[in-house]
Specification:
The chain has a single domain, classed as Porin. It is globular and about 70 Å long. With about 325 residues, the protein is mainly beta. It contains one helix and 16 strands. The termini are far apart. Strand 11 and strand 12 form a beta hairpin.
């Protein structure tokens, strides 16, 4: 009886809380992989990139959420047009959500060292419930008599824009542009639908001295009919290669983040989240591991300054300052004899 009640609670969480509040599964990986925050960031470094990420939430709670994602992007026309994609599997006990995302980003230079990025993407979702692992479920219950009615698919689209000046980035996005509530049909079938979401973000890398920089990041998210989510972070960067910092999320979560460039474009990052209130305080924390690779990257400055070959944010390859060729004097060529 108790186990059955527990699974009913988990199903309720799966249908309502995770399907809405966690359309964006929580992640800190965007601190080193901004594409994980918004596909509008495709091409931000001037290099193709690919990242894989694993996250385990609430380690002291059985059946707690765990997320695996892989994303990446590459150019299709010089440094102006970029395509990217992401695959994500988010599972909480017997409920799981699969997401596939395909994006296109256009990079427009408006002034010297100033760019506007436009992003457009489409998403496919599949929600499924695995009753084979359930305990205490009555097979005669009409809700569970036909497991196929608990599985559903949905589609959505997103759009984003941001402004980049040197190492400053300010942007806005609708990660899910269309939305309506989850619902049951008269047949008892569950229809999974995605809520509309809105996001604002701003970031900059401040130069402190020859060896040290400081990256600041602020992200605001709002899902329709749900409380807002706010994340503020500060991350120290040493020699533009190693990083470590803190992230605070409203609701009582503090994350500790460390990472660095390992070898020739290979980057590793680890994050541990500590709950400071509510259910987070008794959850056992969350672990997150990110591994990425930057192609055609041969230096050590992963967080390189704007305008360099290893740029973190900034000029495109075709717009970097190139010295004009030396021009022979007209008179030296005997043009006025």
């Amino acid at each position: 009886m108790v186990r059955g009640f527990t699974y009913m609670i988990l199903l309720l969480l799966a249908f309502s809380w995770e399907a809405v509040a966690q359309q964006f599964p929580y992640t800190t990986s965007y601190l080193v992989n901004p594409y994980a925050l918004s596909p509008t960031f495709a091409g931000y470094s001037g290099h193709p990139e690919v990242f894989i990420n694993y996250r385990k939430d609430w380690t002291q709670i059985n059946g707690s959420p765990q997320t695996i994602r892989a994303n990446g992007f590459g150019p299709v026309h010089e440094d102006v047009m970029w395509v990217g994609g992401e695959l994500l599997m988010d599972r909480m006990d017997i409920a799981s959500t699969f997401k596939a995302n395909l994006s296109f980003t256009y990079k427009l230079q408006v002034e010297n060292e100033q760019f506007v990025y436009f992003g457009l993407w489409g998403s496919f979702y599949q929600r499924s419930i695995n009753l084979n692992d359930a305990v205490g479920i009555d097979p005669n219950d009409p809700v569970f008599s036909d497991p196929s009615k608990l599985n559903s698919v949905a589609g959505n689209a997103g759009v984003g824009i941001h402004y980049n000046y040197r190492r400053w980035v300010i942007g806005a996005a609708f990660p899910s542009l269309f939305g309506s509530k989850d619902e049951y049909e008269n047949t008892g079938a569950y229809k999974f639908k995605v809520q509309r979401e809105f996001m604002l973000y701003a970031t900059n890398i401040f130069k402190l001295n020859t060896n040290w920089d400081l990256q600041a990041f602020a992200v605001y998210r709002k899902t329709v009919n749900e409380p807002y989510n706010l994340e503020l972070s500060a991350m120290a960067i040493y020699q533009e290669r190693f990083c470590g910092g803190l992230l605070f999320r409203n609701g009582g979560v503090l994350a500790i983040n460390v990472g660095g460039l390992i070898y020739k474009g290979l980057f590793f990052n680890y994050s541990y989240e500590i709950g400071m209130g509510g259910i987070n305080n008794q959850s056992g924390g969350s672990h997150e591991i990110t591994l990425g690779y930057r192609f055609k990257f041969f230096g050590n400055r992963f967080f390189g300054e704007s305008g360099t070959a290893n740029s973190r944010y900034g000029k495109s390859k075709k717009s970097r300052n190139v010295p004009y060729p030396e021009v022979e004097d007209y008179y030296m060529r005997g043009g006025n004899r």
